[in-house]
Amino acid sequence: MNLKQFRKLKKRVIKIAKLEVREVIKLVSTFIHFQIKIRPRLRLLAKVIPILAIIFVSSNQAVAYLKPKEAEIKINGQAILVADKTEEKNQPEEEISQAIQSRRSPFEFQRPVSGGYLSQGYRGYHPANDIAVDLGTPIKPLGPGIVEFAGKVNDGKGNIVIIDHGDSLKSLYAHMGRIDIGVGNVVNTNTQIGTVGLTGHTTGPHVHFEIYDRGKAVDPASILPQ
Fold it and tell me: I need a surface site. Which of 34, 58, 95, 177 has the fewest CB within 10 A?
Protein backbone atom coordinates (compact mmCIF):
# COMPACT_ATOMS: atom_id res chain seq x y z
CA MET A 1 0.00 0.00 0.00
CA ASN A 2 1.47 3.29 -1.07
CA LEU A 3 1.11 6.62 0.71
CA LYS A 4 -1.76 7.82 -1.49
CA GLN A 5 -3.83 4.72 -0.84
CA PHE A 6 -3.11 5.01 2.88
CA ARG A 7 -4.40 8.61 2.97
CA LYS A 8 -7.64 7.61 1.17
CA LEU A 9 -8.17 4.78 3.62
CA LYS A 10 -7.58 7.13 6.54
CA LYS A 11 -10.17 9.60 5.21
CA ARG A 12 -12.75 6.82 4.85
CA VAL A 13 -12.14 5.60 8.40
CA ILE A 14 -12.53 9.13 9.76
CA LYS A 15 -15.71 9.63 7.75
CA ILE A 16 -17.17 6.36 9.01
CA ALA A 17 -16.19 7.27 12.58
CA LYS A 18 -17.92 10.66 12.26
CA LEU A 19 -21.03 9.01 10.92
CA GLU A 20 -21.05 6.56 13.82
CA VAL A 21 -20.60 9.39 16.34
CA ARG A 22 -23.49 11.26 14.76
CA GLU A 23 -25.65 8.16 14.92
CA VAL A 24 -24.74 7.63 18.57
CA ILE A 25 -25.54 11.28 19.40
CA LYS A 26 -28.81 10.98 17.50
CA LEU A 27 -29.76 7.81 19.35
CA VAL A 28 -28.86 9.31 22.75
CA SER A 29 -30.81 12.47 21.95
CA THR A 30 -33.84 10.43 20.88
CA PHE A 31 -33.65 8.36 24.05
CA ILE A 32 -33.42 11.42 26.31
CA HIS A 33 -36.27 13.11 24.48
CA PHE A 34 -38.41 10.00 24.91
CA GLN A 35 -37.60 9.76 28.63
CA ILE A 36 -38.45 13.43 29.15
CA LYS A 37 -41.69 12.96 27.25
CA ILE A 38 -42.91 10.06 29.41
CA ARG A 39 -41.71 11.51 32.76
CA PRO A 40 -43.39 14.78 33.95
CA ARG A 41 -40.61 15.58 36.43
CA LEU A 42 -37.97 15.38 33.77
CA ARG A 43 -40.06 17.66 31.56
CA LEU A 44 -40.20 20.17 34.40
CA LEU A 45 -36.43 19.96 34.94
CA ALA A 46 -35.86 20.41 31.22
CA LYS A 47 -37.79 23.67 31.40
CA VAL A 48 -36.34 24.94 34.68
CA ILE A 49 -32.65 24.21 34.10
CA PRO A 50 -32.28 26.55 31.07
CA ILE A 51 -34.01 29.34 33.03
CA LEU A 52 -31.67 28.84 36.00
CA ALA A 53 -28.69 28.84 33.67
CA ILE A 54 -29.82 32.15 32.14
CA ILE A 55 -30.31 33.68 35.60
CA PHE A 56 -26.88 32.48 36.74
CA VAL A 57 -25.13 33.89 33.67
CA SER A 58 -27.03 37.18 33.97
CA SER A 59 -26.14 37.59 37.65
CA ASN A 60 -22.46 36.94 36.94
CA GLN A 61 -22.52 39.51 34.16
CA ALA A 62 -24.21 42.04 36.50
CA VAL A 63 -21.55 41.49 39.16
CA ALA A 64 -18.81 41.82 36.58
CA TYR A 65 -20.36 45.08 35.41
CA LEU A 66 -20.88 46.60 38.85
CA LYS A 67 -17.54 45.60 40.37
CA PRO A 68 -15.47 48.25 38.56
CA LYS A 69 -18.17 50.84 39.24
CA GLU A 70 -18.43 50.44 43.03
CA ALA A 71 -17.15 53.96 43.61
CA GLU A 72 -19.75 55.35 41.20
CA ILE A 73 -22.77 53.90 43.04
CA LYS A 74 -24.62 56.67 44.85
CA ILE A 75 -27.42 56.72 47.40
CA ASN A 76 -29.13 60.06 47.98
CA GLY A 77 -26.33 61.72 46.06
CA GLN A 78 -23.57 60.22 48.24
CA ALA A 79 -20.97 57.93 46.69
CA ILE A 80 -20.75 54.52 48.35
CA LEU A 81 -17.19 53.17 48.43
CA VAL A 82 -16.60 49.48 49.10
CA ALA A 83 -13.45 48.72 51.04
CA ASP A 84 -11.07 46.16 49.66
CA LYS A 85 -10.82 43.13 51.97
CA THR A 86 -7.12 42.72 51.21
CA GLU A 87 -6.51 46.29 52.31
CA GLU A 88 -8.46 45.74 55.53
CA LYS A 89 -6.18 42.85 56.45
CA ASN A 90 -3.10 45.03 56.03
CA GLN A 91 -4.47 47.88 58.13
CA PRO A 92 -3.13 48.01 61.71
CA GLU A 93 -5.74 47.59 64.43
CA GLU A 94 -6.63 50.83 66.15
CA GLU A 95 -6.80 50.88 69.92
CA ILE A 96 -9.56 52.67 71.78
CA SER A 97 -7.80 54.98 74.19
CA GLN A 98 -10.85 56.67 75.67
CA ALA A 99 -11.11 55.89 79.36
CA ILE A 100 -14.34 54.46 80.75
CA GLN A 101 -15.41 56.40 83.79
CA SER A 102 -17.63 54.90 86.46
CA ARG A 103 -20.84 56.67 87.29
CA ARG A 104 -21.06 58.04 90.84
CA SER A 105 -24.20 57.02 92.68
CA PRO A 106 -26.31 59.95 94.01
CA PHE A 107 -27.81 57.73 96.67
CA GLU A 108 -26.51 58.07 100.23
CA PHE A 109 -27.69 54.85 101.83
CA GLN A 110 -28.90 51.44 100.79
CA ARG A 111 -32.36 50.96 102.27
CA PRO A 112 -35.45 53.17 102.31
CA VAL A 113 -36.52 51.74 105.68
CA SER A 114 -34.78 50.98 108.95
CA GLY A 115 -34.54 47.30 109.82
CA GLY A 116 -36.35 44.53 108.04
CA TYR A 117 -34.90 42.07 105.54
CA LEU A 118 -34.78 41.57 101.78
CA SER A 119 -37.77 39.34 101.05
CA GLN A 120 -37.44 39.39 97.25
CA GLY A 121 -34.62 40.59 95.04
CA TYR A 122 -34.36 41.85 91.47
CA ARG A 123 -35.61 39.43 88.81
CA GLY A 124 -36.72 39.65 85.19
CA TYR A 125 -40.33 39.30 86.28
CA HIS A 126 -39.77 41.44 89.42
CA PRO A 127 -37.60 44.49 88.57
CA ALA A 128 -37.41 45.71 92.17
CA ASN A 129 -36.30 44.96 95.72
CA ASP A 130 -38.79 44.13 98.48
CA ILE A 131 -37.92 44.74 102.12
CA ALA A 132 -40.24 43.13 104.63
CA VAL A 133 -40.74 45.31 107.69
CA ASP A 134 -43.38 46.21 110.26
CA LEU A 135 -46.59 47.89 109.16
CA GLY A 136 -46.36 51.68 109.55
CA THR A 137 -42.54 51.85 109.34
CA PRO A 138 -41.43 55.26 107.96
CA ILE A 139 -40.15 55.27 104.37
CA LYS A 140 -37.41 57.68 103.32
CA PRO A 141 -36.05 58.31 99.81
CA LEU A 142 -32.86 56.68 98.58
CA GLY A 143 -31.40 60.08 97.80
CA PRO A 144 -32.29 63.76 97.36
CA GLY A 145 -34.64 64.76 94.57
CA ILE A 146 -38.03 66.15 93.57
CA VAL A 147 -41.33 64.29 93.92
CA GLU A 148 -42.64 63.50 90.44
CA PHE A 149 -45.72 61.50 91.42
CA ALA A 150 -47.57 60.73 94.64
CA GLY A 151 -50.84 58.83 94.64
CA LYS A 152 -52.65 55.56 93.97
CA VAL A 153 -52.28 53.45 90.82
CA ASN A 154 -54.33 50.48 89.63
CA ASP A 155 -51.53 48.17 88.45
CA GLY A 156 -51.22 46.32 91.76
CA LYS A 157 -48.70 48.67 93.41
CA GLY A 158 -51.29 50.61 95.37
CA ASN A 159 -50.07 53.93 96.81
CA ILE A 160 -46.77 54.91 95.21
CA VAL A 161 -44.29 57.77 95.19
CA ILE A 162 -41.86 58.49 92.35
CA ILE A 163 -38.85 60.71 92.97
CA ASP A 164 -36.68 62.26 90.25
CA HIS A 165 -33.06 62.34 91.44
CA GLY A 166 -31.72 64.08 88.33
CA ASP A 167 -29.21 62.72 85.83
CA SER A 168 -32.01 60.48 84.42
CA LEU A 169 -32.30 58.51 87.69
CA LYS A 170 -35.65 57.90 89.37
CA SER A 171 -36.88 55.76 92.26
CA LEU A 172 -40.34 54.33 92.96
CA TYR A 173 -41.81 53.20 96.29
CA ALA A 174 -44.97 51.04 96.31
CA HIS A 175 -47.59 49.47 98.64
CA MET A 176 -47.38 52.50 100.89
CA GLY A 177 -50.01 52.94 103.60
CA ARG A 178 -49.76 56.70 103.97
CA ILE A 179 -48.22 59.30 101.65
CA ASP A 180 -46.72 62.31 103.45
CA ILE A 181 -45.49 64.43 100.54
CA GLY A 182 -46.86 65.89 97.30
CA VAL A 183 -45.79 66.42 93.70
CA GLY A 184 -43.08 69.05 93.39
CA ASN A 185 -41.78 68.69 96.96
CA VAL A 186 -38.00 68.70 97.37
CA VAL A 187 -36.89 65.77 99.52
CA ASN A 188 -33.67 64.37 100.97
CA THR A 189 -32.66 61.25 102.86
CA ASN A 190 -34.12 62.63 106.09
CA THR A 191 -37.57 63.33 104.58
CA GLN A 192 -40.33 60.90 105.49
CA ILE A 193 -42.29 60.34 102.31
CA GLY A 194 -44.81 57.93 103.82
CA THR A 195 -45.23 54.66 105.68
CA VAL A 196 -45.20 50.94 104.89
CA GLY A 197 -48.68 49.67 104.12
CA LEU A 198 -50.70 46.92 102.48
CA THR A 199 -52.15 48.75 99.48
CA GLY A 200 -52.26 47.09 96.08
CA HIS A 201 -51.48 43.41 95.61
CA THR A 202 -49.34 42.29 98.53
CA THR A 203 -49.23 39.33 100.92
CA GLY A 204 -47.62 41.22 103.78
CA PRO A 205 -46.23 44.59 104.85
CA HIS A 206 -43.12 45.54 102.90
CA VAL A 207 -41.69 48.39 100.85
CA HIS A 208 -41.32 47.64 97.15
CA PHE A 209 -38.82 49.98 95.53
CA GLU A 210 -37.60 50.26 91.96
CA ILE A 211 -34.81 52.29 90.34
CA TYR A 212 -34.95 53.57 86.76
CA ASP A 213 -31.95 54.75 84.76
CA ARG A 214 -32.95 56.61 81.57
CA GLY A 215 -36.39 55.03 81.71
CA LYS A 216 -35.21 51.44 82.13
CA ALA A 217 -35.51 49.44 85.35
CA VAL A 218 -32.13 48.44 86.82
CA ASP A 219 -31.05 46.28 89.72
CA PRO A 220 -30.90 48.54 92.81
CA ALA A 221 -27.76 46.66 93.88
CA SER A 222 -25.97 48.07 90.81
CA ILE A 223 -26.80 51.67 91.76
CA LEU A 224 -26.91 51.81 95.55
CA PRO A 225 -23.59 52.11 97.42
CA GLN A 226 -22.48 49.09 99.37
Answer: 95
